[in-house]
Predict the 3D structure of the following.
Amino acid sequence: MSVVGITKVAKRYGRVTALEDVSMTIADGEFFGLLGPSGGGKTTLLRSIAGFIDPDDGEISIDGKPVKNIPINKRDIGMMFQNYALFPHMTVTDNIGFGLSVRHRPKAEIEARVTELLRLVRLEGFGERKPRQLSGGQQQRIALARALATNPRVLLLDEPLGALDKKLREEMQFELKQIQRNVGITTVFVTHDQEEALTLSDRIAIMSEGKVLQIGAPRDIYERPRTRFAAGFLGTANFFEGTVSGREGGLTRILLAGGTAIFTRDEAPEGRSVTIAVRPEKFTVGGATPAPASDAQVNRIAGRIAGEVFAGNSVTYRIDAAGRIVTVYMQNRMTERLGPDAPVTLTWDPAHSIVLED
């Protein structure tokens, strides 16, 4: 297990900046996610840690030692690729033991390590099979076992579950996290899948256009995104633009276009234009004329149902309110369906109105 340090790392390809002044520290034993859209810089950063890419500026270190002049095969890093890159002509045993074989480790040591890893990934008895005889999930676990075979200090995963279908991907998220916990290895993985990032990561770095926009625990970033991009990329968010018009009852009042006022517990200077983010599940949907709430400090806006998407255990509503379409998630607990164009009132706690930095 090891600490990975990244300090002011930059990488440019002509006029294109792939990484710009990227800094972060990945803790010993941490499962760290790099989340962002295609072209955001996350894969460039991962490959820079591995040694496939040489940064133009900055420093990458492992346990405080710079790795710039250390060749790939000497960095003591395990890497698992999106397509797994298993050797089709080799057995599972030979695939897992390949890294040890090229290091000329004794045969008995290789056999013992392969047996240990097959037990870890719960594929005992599969050693003589070829990759084509395995399911996608089994291939993923064999690729992971191969990456772990040499007892690397750091494990790098490039879209590790991207080749799996949705159901299997969800199952393997829990498998992968459990294996990482059992081994205790410092792990960095790349994904563009927000659910995967939330499920696997101890911490997440959200990246866009080569920059790190926010780093934090999944729950912290989800509940308190700092930017519009972070709010919209990690989950879904509704955005309200308005102007701070003062304080009232310990809350900040935001005046929206059209005169509707909403409130937040965040502070902002009077007269400032702000964007508020509210997650879809934070709303409560009531009738057009709800009974007075016991808590006066609750946001309320009137609207009408503009559409719905039924997903079995939940319903996503599109509600025309305050001059915009608001997305609302509701558990499927209703005895009556909210029909098209039905008048409703949206309520939510001002604590869930997040003032964004941009």
